[in-house]
Amino acid sequence: MRISEASALALATRLLEEHGAPRDHAALQARVLVTAEMKGHPSHGLYRLPRLVERIERGVIDPQTKGTQRWRADAVLEVEGSSGFGPVVAMAAIERLAPHIPDLGIGLVAVRNANHLGMLAHYVEAIAALGFVGIALSSSEALVHPFGGTRAMLGTNPIAIAVPTAEEPLVLDLATSLVPMGRIHHHAATGRPIPEGWARDAAGNPTTDPGRAKAGAIAPFGDAKGYGLGIALELLVAALAGSALAPDARGTLDSQSPCNKGDVFILIEPSLAPGLQERLSTYLDAVRASPPASAGEPVLVPGDRARGRRAAASRNGLEIDQRLWEDLNALSRPRILAFEGQRS
Questions:
Q1: Domain positions in the chain
Q2: Are 107 and 101 in contact (CB under 8 A)?
Q3: pLDDT tens-digit profile of 84-122?
Q4: Whole-prediction pTM value?
Q5: From CA 234, how far away is CA 140, in angstroms rounded?
Q6: What are the alphabetically sorted keywords of the record (predicted)?
Q7: In terms of Cα–Cα distance, which of 208, 197, 196, 219 is closest to 150?
Q8: Are the beta carbons of 226 and 220 closer than 8 angstroms?
Q9: What's 258's DSSP letter?
């Protein structure tokens, strides 16, 4: 079924408000979910809303907090997320740091114990809209096996980068796993097998069964290269945020555990070289105009496909699974438990 962007935002915002979130917190969390849907990533979209509601009800999300911020150094803002919504905690910290970047040149936010961020593109796009280069990193539970191994030992450890240009920014957003675990959960929820090579089961055997994959491990992208980048980001996030390493991390994919992963955001003042942003845009246009490998399939740069999908969704509405939409509409009577606070 198709629904409008406004209808999706209204429903998601209302459900979160009914479960104790202030309106601005509910609207921000809803926006992150709906934008993921619009960009063609339902695994990070409304599919996650019932789990967010359940986590609030179980007391492992505090929907009212923005976390606690403190300056660790002039250019480093440290944040105890206190089990708040990931987008709310992250954006509050980015907004606190951003006014200082013209003087500092570069600054960093390090967050621990906040909930799932959703797509990292949201944050680097927001940073780029302020005129800065943005880098975002996040960690997760052990979901990825090392190159040459079979047991989950690393997080999916996504990274996003946005570089402002004279036109739309370049936006790269990728996990260091072959796919995000959210996509495997989405396949399981919709009863579809996963492609060969995505994952192994709990015994270490290759599988196309998403249920078995959920209990096993995802492959790193690019074999040794993705593994190397993933484990480097694993240590980098933990070192900067003081957060749990993957084998001890919990809370991004279940409804019971406090979330104890880490997030890092870097804001950088770009060069003031005359005409720089125009040169960057010209270069990206030259890449797009380069000869395609397949006729009728033009070369794209990171961010183009997501922008195209979002524009189409704005025109035509969102394609949403009817059962999911009905389930979301049924979540109308909150059963809120008292917030229990962060448990280690």
A1: 2-178+219-275+317-331
A2: yes
A3: 999 999 999 999 999 999 999 999 999 999 999 999 999
A4: 0.93
A5: 9
A6: Oxidoreductase
A7: 219
A8: yes
A9: P
